[in-house]
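From the shared-data thread, chain only:
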Amino acid sequence: MQKEALRKAITGKVTVITGGPGTGKTTLVNSLIKILEKKGQRIALASPTGRAAKRLSEVTGHEAKTIHRLLEFSPSEGGFKRNEDNPLDAELVVVDEVSMVDILLMNHLLKAIPTMATLLLVGDADQLPSVGSGNVLKDIIASERVEIIRLTEIFRQAQESLIVVNAHRVNRGEFLQLKASPGQQANLYFINSEDPQKVVEVIKELCKRRLPHTFNLDPLEDIQVMTPMHKGIVGVANLNAELQSLLNSNGKAVARGGRLFRVNDKVMQIKNNYEKETFNGDIGRIVGIDLEEQKLMVKFEDRVIDYDWSELDELVLAYAISIHKSQGSEYPAVVIPLLPQHCIMLQRNLLYTAITRAKRLVVLVGSKRAIVIAIKNNKVQFRYTNLGPRLNKC
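Structure, as tokens:
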């Protein structure tokens, strides 16, 4: 299947590679890059977010940029420098995590791709759709107007991971396998608790002591709590307040707009800021607060960005984040509370997306009933788009 996929990807002008975790998307992309590199082709790699671009760089060994950076967004001009009049200098353009790309960004990207170039779109169509408008990846796949490569076979090595096995079980509408078989990694756990307040206490214990001591994980760098909702006892806001108090209760702080920020806090950018080149969903750490200059410094990956007091509404605490905000990111360990109170948000693709964010460990805390509700609910909200009909007219 992979060899046939590789042939199609090399000969096609526009190709979509889709599949779940462990099916070999990365292996296929790497093989294609090596072949075309040997032929001397110029290659450009991109992803929607900084974290996703960094991961793409790590797995391919080539520089990858955010789509905005690849298209050279200019804040002063209010648009992209790369367009149909000034296309990208590339013969192969690879875009990863395409499920996150909305219709407007895809429009700008396609305008900047040279006519002679090959476009490779890589993504998991079963994840949550983009935050922005449209349903680009699913619409392209449904149109069947371009070459679609669906990878379905899970590699033997991936089958040894309960994370991968359970991601595919959820996608098929099957309940989780909670006990590892002989030869499998026990890297997915479920802690049963029906009481929301008790769930909060369990999460705090996991983040502060159990996971760091048992799996040698850093509470701030390695563990990400992800929850379906913003409000409520087990929502993003309350979990952040509880975890900040538990994990980072001392040090210089500033309170703005009802939010308290401390040095060493984990924070998330919640608006696209093209001047700072920080985008919705980027996670960093506060490394300094200057009370005299009224500035706060945040380290994102390898860059430190200054924020004036007036710009702090762009930041929120990120000890806990919504599952929607986790798209395109990977974390060593994720802790996911699931309760019947979350029922309005409990959907199969939400649980699937949450589980697939973890590299080493998943811990689900809550009720089996909530997990069953999520797995059975495969009725995703329909998005009204006109991309499919337009493609079918081509």
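The radius of gyration is 21 Å.
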